[in-house]
Amino acid sequence: MAIIKTEACKRRDVSMWRSKYAAIFLLLALSVLFFLLRHINLLEFQNKINTTFPITRVYPVPPRQLDYCSYQPRTPEDVLEERLLLDSIAWPETPLLPVPVSLTRTSDPAHSTFTVLPARGGKRRVGDRLEARILMRDVQGRPKSFGGDVLVARLHNPALGAGVAGRVADHLNGSYTAVFPLLWEGRAQVEVTLVHPSEAVTVLRRLTRDHPDRIFFHSVFSSGSVSETMVCNVCLPSNQEPLCNYTNLHTGEPWFCYKPKKLSCDTRISHSTGGFNQNLMAKEEKLFQSGVNMKVFIRASGSDSVTVLPKEEEMQSSVLKPEPSGYYYQGVWRAPGGATVHQFNDSAVIGQCLRDKVVHLYGDSTIRQWFEYLNSVLPDLKEFDLHSPKQVGPFMAVDSVHNILVKYRCHGPPIRFGNVPTSELRYIANELDSLVGGSRTVVVFGIWSHFSTFPVEVYLRRLQGIRRAVRRLLDRAPDTLVVIRTANLKALTLYETLTNSDWYSLQRDKVLRAVFKDLNVRLVDAWEMTLAHHLPHNLHPQPPIIKNMIDVLLSYICPQ
Description:
The chain is of the alpha+beta class. Among the domains are: 1-52; 215-276, no CATH class; 328-557, Rossmann fold. Helices cover 30% and strands 23% of the residues. The chain has eleven helices and 24 strands. Strands 1, 2, 3, 4, 5, 6, 7, 13 and 14 form a nine-stranded mixed beta sheet that branches. Helix 1 (2-52) crosses helix 2 (76-88), helix 5 packs across helix 11 and helix 7 (456-476) runs parallel beside helix 9. The radius of gyration is 28 Å and the shape is globular. The relative contact order is 0.12.
């Protein structure tokens, strides 16, 4: 009997062992499956970013000092997206600069050259592509051995009013390749511009890492006869003075002011730019000299132009992938591929296109330009006097003949405008959530310039909030048209560079495109439209460029 009990116990033990380890193996299998699915999603997202922005190998980005800056908790998806996007825009590291700075070993456009590479087959035709090799040298004429210079390039023909932006690849050894699609017959001339030497980028990156609050803001607190002006910013160290917390409850966007000595936090009445701390080390300003090492053309070694022949019918197109968003021909912006940009040269045609539409414009002064343009070309569009400051807004204009309403509102802080009433400090995400939307609603926003001095994370989180609001809008009203204006190049002085360099704009432009890549939104590519045009770069592009931008916008509204 005892033997029978022993065998039964053994069988029971084996059964329990199998059940126990089966559960463990099942748990392990599920863990492996979860791991694989998560990393497949990660790889898919990484591929999506790399498809949008082809990049070469880069060095790690140094950590940013944001210890005293706290955001509301975010989803794991947002955290993953942030990490991947920061990796995608990482810039090559350069050697540490001596103190004080010496220009001897810095990239010098006067000694650098580019060479147009020979055509395959000996002839160039429309639909082919052109390549130019750029070799960077320092002030003493020695070849550079590392990358990181900020270079832009375009192909143009002044007589034809033609131009297209090129793509520049960094080979991380002092050489670069600029690639252009050939889109018109006749002469095509290569133009390469050094925006910043790599050593200047080292300084710009350090400023953002170590001094993210170098532009600061003021708010006026007032009650009765008592008035106090306090410093405000996205984040402020709380160990210095008590803070007033104005973090937006809906979007989670942080904003703080130091608490007034006599007044309460709820007496804040206005917002304005407070000032700017340069924070440069000895002689670092030498790295930002217009006409010397900033926004300077690089000369060609040999001819800088080619002749483009008509396209052969049987020829396979080899234009850049992804293609440029467009190009100029006879001063008119054209879209490659099947898209069409119509010309709205008559106010009656514009009025008919916008009939029964409500156009909401949100953003900075580059979006305000669009309001001003529409207000100037539509004779029946009458602006209401809302007694708003000219720079700040809000603005509203009505065309009662065509039943058109156009509105402009600046985006929320950080915005470097003067004397904005706190009641007019609105976040774009909140404004979008207040819209009903629909086929008669057009939403346009542009937000980039005022985020340049802050770490990219601050900008990315703002975009993630706007994206959530755009999704909600399109979920409840799928036929709403949403258009985004990208960043553009600008003229650079020392101040403009330290606060709003094209390098800062380029980084944020890449982030914006990736964040909204998979949404049903349209882009007006201000970056390529300003790079490809013959007019000088300007923070506020000149009227011919604005006209082309509005033509793109109206073509989205009225595609037929």
